[in-house]
Design brief:
heterodimer, A: 4-stranded antiparallel sheet, 11 strands, B: 5-stranded antiparallel sheet, 0% helix
Chain lengths: 112, 109
């Protein structure tokens, strides 16, 4: 099974709200990633976790806060977002860093 | 950093036609993947192919790592093949995928 699940599928939030995106995989992968994809653009890396430790933070604003509570779960906490943060947020996992990455279906976020 | 260029940017085909999508990259890589992004946004793994040739049904891919390019072949295209095809390569540290801008394929019946 090469499935990565993400919830919710869609999210609409105001600029003062706090919300969280959730990503889960049960493939025993030890690297997990958050990517952001704007309309008609390719995905861009936000964060990388390896063995539940934050490995890469691609200069992402602090209004995005990642969390990896265990090896199967990855969260992205959102606070005080801006309308330009509206995008498709994709989670991915791989057996290890440098391995083949598998993507979840994404959360389509709209900030009003 | 690594640059990834895909061509053509757009491709329009009749059902049953064959096509070749190209991905050029600017440095040696240890990871290269091809994805199909469907209209709902899901990135579907097509091939993990840092080198060599692979085939899966009507799709096949070849990566010539020494010449820094990869090709994706789609034969007997179907309307369900429509969508965006991305090539992505691992960065130098191997910690992230760098995506090309994609090829948008439209197959009409």
């Amino acid at each position: 099974d090469t499935e990565v699940t993400q919830t919710p599928k869609h999210l609409v939030m105001g600029m003062t709200n706090k919300k969280s995106l959730k990503c889960e995989q049960h493939m025993g992968h030890r690297a997990m990633y958050w990517y952001k994809q704007k309309a008609k653009k390719p995905p861009e890396l936000m964060f990388v976790y390896s063995y539940e430790k934050l490995s890469i933070n691609e200069s992402v604003p602090s209004r995005f806060s990642p969390e990896c509570p265990n090896s199967s779960l990855l969260n992205l906490h959102l606070h005080a977002l801006q309308p330009e943060d509206s995008a498709l947020y994709l989670c991915a996992s791989s057996l290890r860093l440098r391995g083949e990455q598998y993507f979840g279906p994404g959360t389509r976020l709209t900030v009003t | 950093g690594i640059q990834v260029e895909q061509s053509p940017p757009d491709l329009i085909l009749q059902e049953g036609a064959n096509s070749t999508l190209r991905c050029n990259f600017s440095d040696s890589v240890n990871n290269l993947q091809w994805f199909h992004q469907n209209p709902w946004g899901q990135l579907i793994n097509l091939f993990y192919i840092p080198s060599g040739t692979k085939q899966n049904g009507r799709l096949s891919a070849t990566t010539v790592a020494t010449e820094r390019y990869s090709l994706l072949y789609i034969s007997s295209s179907q309307t369900t093949d429509s969508g965006v095809y991305f090539c992505a390569v691992g960065n130098q540290a191997g910690t992230a995928l760098i995506f090309g801008k994609g090829t948008t394929l439209s197959v009409s019946s």
